[in-house]
Design goal:
Blueprint: H1 2-28, H2 53-75, H3 79-104, H4 107-110, H5 112-139, H6 143-151
Helix pairs in contact: 2-3, 3-5
Length: about 150
Amino acid sequence: VSSRMSSLGAFTLRSAARVNSALLASRVAPRLSVPLRAATTLNDGANKTHDHSSHFKYERFFAAGMMPLIPAAYFVHGPVMDAALTVALTLHIHWGIQGVIADYARPYVIGQTAAKAARVSAYIISALLLAGLLHFNTNDVGITKAFEMVFSL
């Protein structure tokens, strides 16, 4: 029995030495493949089944396309420019609100009911913004003329 125990002790020491040397080698050696996503068992609402990278790309292209729209709105006044600016600003602000809600109003953090209410409130805020800007464009001077009046002060 004692020879068996000594061989078991030697086996565990050899195994521990191999594991230790493997850990040291893995710290020094460069990684050849890095996993793109880490598996997790935590269900915090962050694991998504859809790939949203194309949506993010479209948002960036849309934001870049808005850059000439803002200065052009200063020089070109009229209902078409007001409508274009209204739709562009509302969509841009809606995507921003949705991004904040997706980051900070997860069901795991604030609860399922509050997270659903936050998502619904993003659409309500965007609809009210669009309705308010369209009302301002049709019943008042419009966004472009209002900006000109502010800049003339």
